[in-house]
Amino acid sequence: MRKDLMVSADNLAERCDPNLFGFETTDEVKHDNRGIIGQHRAVKAMDFGLNVQNDRHHLFLTGPSGTGKTTYAKRKTKEIAKKQSTPQDWVYTYNFQQPDRPKAMPLPPGLGVQFAQDMEELMQDIEDEIERVLNGKPFERRKMEMAQQHEDEMKAKWEALEQKAKEQEFTIERTQQGVVAIPLNEDGEAHSDESFDQLPEDRREEVMKKSKELTQNVNEVLRLQQTAKRKLRKRLRKAEEQLVHQSIHGFISGMKDDYQEFSCIQEFLNELEHDVIKHWKQLLPKKESDEDQSKTFAGTIDMKQRYKVNAFVDHSSTKGAPVIYEIHPSYANLFGKVDYKSTFGSFVTDNYMMTAGSLHTTNGGYLILNAADVLAHPYSWKALKQVLKTGELRMENSYEDNEVFTKSVVKPEAIPLRLKVIMIGTPSLYQLLYRTDEDFRKLFKVKVDFDTDMERNKEHKLDYAAFVASFCNKECLRHLTKEALAKVIDYSTRLANNRKKLSTRFDEITEILIEANYWAEKEEEAYIHDHHVSEALRERFFRSNRSEQRLYEAIDDGTIMISTSGQAVGQLNALVVSRTGEYAFGHPTRVTARTYVGRKGIVNIDRESLLTGSIHTKGLHILSGYLQAEFAQNYPLPLAASITFEQSYNMVDGDSASSTELYALLSSLGKIPLRQDIAVTGSVNQFGEIQSIGGVNEKIEGFFYVCRKKGLTGTQGVIIPKQNVKHLMLRNEVIEAVEAGLFHIWAVSTIKDGIEILTGLPAGTKDEQGNYSKESVYAIVQARILNMLYTLSQQKGFDYQAVEEEKGVMQTDGDFAPWFHGRTEV
């Protein structure tokens, strides 16, 4: 049985000694902030990436889920950010020269909101003052005086014209057709058409001449009247503007004094003063008729709105540099949004209707993003790369909303951008972006790679204790006894798949703590004990192992054919791992091989049925390479074989069953029976060396459960690669069975080691002539191959002699392997 290859019970698992800890429960542990545990490489990369001052050294945190990438990114950036200066506020103001391009102004942190509030108060004061002075009695008297002066002047001109007309026997009348000069008769009444026609011709000509002259005089007076009106309006407007300027200048000057060190504000206030003087009427309260009239102008903006200041980015409450984890990186959330309001079928906006995005808010700080979420919004990803390359943050309309209505578009001034972007994603996503996106390679130059495990040493065990204590305090859970903590550490090693490692996938550890706390609470215990951790693990597996139990039932009732005793030719139990969501379990599956004379080589039935992946196909080619090298050095291999996973109807991939397939082929070739109470796992290379595989614990336990159900005989066991011994972290029930001699585990290095365990025969060694030692497995196989070659040579058209001369076929004493008669039939 090759006892020398058996793995002792001491090497089947690593158990943490609770006495290692200098405390009884974790509430005694000082859970100081030790930072992230077991990620030395990631910590160094993170420190470098966050502190290097370069616009293209952004960070990409990668690693399996559950290793604490997001939590660490947020905590580390906040630690650094609180030591840095708070960035500037940004405000947007109306652009008096280009109204569709609001101006961006940087201000010290906290001053943006203050300036916006001061502007609101200033404009209210200005409105009140303008209304007061323009509606006041002094200015009303002044307007009346100017109007009266205009009226007196025009009255004098009209009186002079009327006197002149009277002297010439005319009168001036105002009709619907205008002002006309009408001739009078001797009675001082206006001529009728009949009386005018009865006048002598010379008199009529004289009257017509005077009428024409008076008409010219009337037109001249009318022209002077219109000119005088325009002058009056100008005088009134100028008087109003002068009064407005006088009334608002003091307010604006006071505001300029408050912000005298900011040239951008000084310039804005100067422009605002001139604009208010021009448009002061629109600042006054509107009458109902004015409001109705204003509604007819679609697309216009309230004049008062243009003077508002948009406190776009406000850092009045920010301490240090800002840090934001944007959980929904849509275009609007990252780059801001311009709001619109509907006005009679058109949509208008202004500088006050713009909302900042995360990039604006974190400008001068740190923005954390989930890479998959960003890529789910293609406009976001493209625009993000653009702003990182240009260093300018612009607000533009996004096409994500598929908006089709008419808008008045604004293009705010760009804001200089300076920040660190930290993206978080899976290793496969990082590789995809690195290979396919040139911009990504140029911008995200710092890779922060998180590992899945760390060394299982005393220091890290104590780190685990601190982590558990901190988590229990944070989540208000019961603390653990030292025995329960030891159980958690052992479970961590199981997750790491290595007895010398601890898992750094802390989310899975925290889930067990939460569930163990439930069972402790149910028993009204003050602390979480080791049996609570065990119960949490059992229940966790139970919730997910319905498929596993159904499979074992099918094996037990014979629906799925698995033998755990006896011997069979060309048949062996392979071990595979199946997954249902997060739960993985191992189980046996029967591999069978049939061999016969032919030249087709090895045919994989599963591959022909399109049920295997590329890795499994590669493993099959390796088998061919091994057989060719081992048995066809001096003659061709006359082999045709079929091999399959019986009762397997799903896709199969991986090469961990390649050694099992090779054992089955050797058994079929030599018609040598293999033990059915042993299951096998292990990959093989072309030199016959057994290579490590994954899921070794699940595979061993899967076959153990099947054997236990059918009845343990004391001969059953599993053959595994020697390299996988360090990965063993088996459950107690398996270890106890091994200790009692009811179950066995062999660790092999070569195919020959395994074939000796499975057949009870020596594998055989090759002599100088290429013959294997008699009565060995390989000698039997060799003899069968030679007999198959002889059988093939008897076929018509096969020139065996030519092959023999060319290949130098090994000669025997008149027969093929004379010591092994009776095994020549196919």
UniProtKB/TrEMBL annotation:
Gene3D superfamilies: 1.10.8.60, 3.30.230.10, P-loop containing nucleotide triphosphate hydrolases (3.40.50.300). The active site is at 656, 699. It comes from the Bacteria. One of its GO terms (biological process) is protein catabolic process. Pfam families: AAA_32, Lon_C, LonB_AAA-LID, LonC_helical. Its EC number is 3.4.21.53. Residues 116-164, 222-249 form a coiled coil. It catalyses: Hydrolysis of proteins in presence of ATP. Keywords: Coiled coil, Hydrolase, Protease, Serine protease. Belongs to the peptidase S16 family. This is endopeptidase La.
